[in-house]
Amino acid sequence: MKNAWELLASDDVLEAMTLLGCDDKYIYGSASDFEKFKELCATFFMLEGSDVAEKLMKKISGALEKKVCFDHIRADNAIALWKEINVSLGAFYGETPIFEQSVENLCRTETKRAKANRVEKNKFINEFFDVNRAVDGIKSSSDSSLSQFCDMLIKSSNYKISVTLSDADFVRPNRYLADGVIKKISDDEKYNLSEYNLLLCQIICELIFADSSRILQLYLNSQSSFSAAKELINYLSMRKLRARIFLCVCSSNSPEDIKITCLLGGNGCFTTPVFIKKDTDTNDRTDTFLNSLYRIYPSGNVLVLE
To answer: For the chain, how many structural domains are there in total?
Structure first.
């Protein structure tokens, strides 16, 4: 007999929790089914307007044989909801001690999560146009080696960089080749777009390796080179390199591609899409794009700059 978590834990729910940055133990890991259910309730408010939220509400309403509204699924109601669904399913829902956590603590968890989300959004908006632009730094630097340039960048950027990949394909980082590109730039020699991408990707890796105790904040402009950004995030994630990525997107990007790309980052390279409205975007076009994105992507983890 299924319990409440097993009823609700479909692939799209697990994807949504990954996109919201939930710890892996609450998705596929060692946490108990109740702890996973509680984590879902605590993050549910960030799924407002999505297909996942509608499906969850329908499943819960079907199990309880009564309509369940959006506000009913929340952290401070997790214990009561867990019991109610499991009783309705005829499932064993755990020993009494599992429910001894106070409602006050659950409320605090949800409030802390919401507050942190708001703080990060405000901080991002304030800092977005002030972060060090890596390419500008390369062009204005007289340093002729990659290591010297990265040292300079670390000191001046406070571990925040913004890069714009070219329209060329992603190129796997290679320190020897990247040093060659740096020399070309320093000597005012021509370099191609693939070399440009290789250099930027190598810089990102150098900064991550420079201090494993700090998390690099990477502002990644993908509006005209989404495939390269996607491959970069996948490369970092597969090699278990850690970064906090803000993925700049626009109305011409596919919401499905945005979702897939952010999923590739996982927890190690947790990625937040940042929608940047273009001068040519009408309000209707912007609304249509954001509504389409919110249907498949948690709105609580989307930043909008207009």
So the answer is: 2
User: In whole angstroms, what is the distance from residue 192 CA to residue 305 CA?
Assistant: 31
Could you tell me which residue, 91 or 22, shows the higher pLDDT? Answer: 22
Indicate whether 126 belongs to any domain.
Answer: no
Q: Residue written as tokens 């890991």?
A: 29
Task: Check whether residue 144 and residue 243 sit in a common domain.
Answer: yes
- H or E stretch covering 275: strand 271-276
Whole-number Å distance between alpha carbons of 124 and 129: 9
pLDDT at 38 over 80: yes
Over the stretch 177-206, which tens digit does the pLDDT of each residue have? 988 888 888 788 888 888 888 888 888 888
Residue 116 has pLDDT above 60, yes or no: no
Looking at the structure, tell me whether residues 33 and 90 fall in a common domain: yes
181 with 198: CB under 8 angstroms? yes
Where in the sequence is the domain holding 46, given as residue range(s)?
A: 4-117
145: helix, strand or coil: coil
Distance CA 64, CA 54 (A): 15
9: Cβ contacts below 8 Å, ≥ 6 apart: 36
The answer to whether 56 and 7 are in contact (CB under 8 A) is no
Query: Residue 58 and residue 159: Cα distance in Å, rounded?
Result: 44
